[in-house]
């Protein structure tokens, strides 16, 4: 079986698909991954075949965009930058499928248009949603537009959500139909929100312990579990970091993932000073090629990156931005979490962490040295958070979302072959 994967976004939008791809390869299948050329080394390192989008759009320029993680302007940046990549993505997939049709496709819903190409070519395809936000359900205990904890915030978000969905559907259809016109597809309706619930299969790549099935889920939907891959599970930690971890008590770990880290501002300086205020050791994952804060206090170390799967379980607590990949790894580690969401689905993910009792949430615009120290201490001093985090970590460690997703794709391809026969 040959599976063609199409995704677009950051490392957090790539790693779950690499996990599924690696599982498929281990089962004897062939996997090709189409995404931005920036990620070709990551795909090759995972043992999969890259088929990069021929685009001049610069992923590095996108990361340096100052508004990328602005709560309101950020989505407009993504629409502009992703839009520049979607036309060449569609053309590339058409050529690829014409040359050698795959048995099935796995498509990140952000790769808008990839599903259209699959339907056009008659290739069975599964749409993958990485975060529960994209399976918007009016009965979800964490509404789509809720940005902070509390019953009043939840009621506000439910009321606002109905109007927001209607406006988003109209605006996104206008934009998506321009893309369809440029690429030779007829006009359509509900093209963005419908894509999140479309496909021959709709695979939720999160754990049912994080967000269970609801009555309003896609009828062809299946919750698979988190697919575990961060590019370093089998690699040792940096020797300097390993020596630091072995030299004292468990530290507080701070990370903003691979994309939000470029919009960190003084976050890591605040983190270092909060550790000093608390008398705690700390590890700052400041990002590859990015400067560490000057004059770090004793007991705090800055490193460019470390695999979360290896570092997070050795932390006293994990402080992160709420990206779905970081959230999943922090939950599996079984340690208390403090989530500081920046934009996009991160608020929804952070609220689910607090609803599960596995951590706390702090608003980015309210993050000061004193507040950061206070929230970390509250996480560490709450026995209920520690117990919930440990229990949830044990449940997630027993799951294999990549294997579940691979099984669905095998059955999808087999059904397609039977129909063709």
Q: How would you describe this protein?
A:
The structure is a single chain. This protein is an alpha/beta fold and 421 residues long. Helix content is 44%, strand content 12%. The two termini are 16 Å apart.
Quaternary structure type: single chain
Return the structural class. Answer: alpha/beta
Q: Strand fraction band?
A: 5-15%
Main pleated-sheet profile: 7 strands, parallel
Shape: globular
H/E element sequence: EHEHEHHEHEHEEHEHEEHEHEHEHHH
Average pLDDT, to the nearest integer? 92
Strand order in the sheet with the most strands:
3-2-1-4-5-6-7
Q: How far apart lie the N and C ends?
A: 16 Å
**What would you report as the Rg, rounded to the nearest angstrom?**
21 Å
Q: Determine the fraction of residues in helical runs and give it as a percent range.
A: 40-55%
Give the low-confidence spans: none
Question: Features of this protein?
Answer:
421 residues, alpha/beta, seven-stranded parallel beta sheet, six-stranded parallel beta sheet, 14 helices, 44% helix
Fold blueprint:
Layout: E1 2-6, H1 11-26, E2 30-34, H2 40-45, E3 49-50, H3 59-64, H4 74-99, E4 104-108, H5 114-121, E5 125-129, H6 151-182, E6 201-204, E7 221-223, H7 239-246, E8 252-255, H8 267-278, E9 282-285, E10 300-303, H9 308-311, E11 317-320, H10 324-333, E12 337-339, H11 346-355, E13 359-361, H12 369-381, H13 383-397, H14 401-420
Parallel strand pairs: 1-2, 1-4, 2-3, 4-5, 5-6, 6-7, 8-9, 8-11, 9-10, 11-12, 12-13
Helix pairs in contact: 1-14, 4-5, 8-12, 10-13
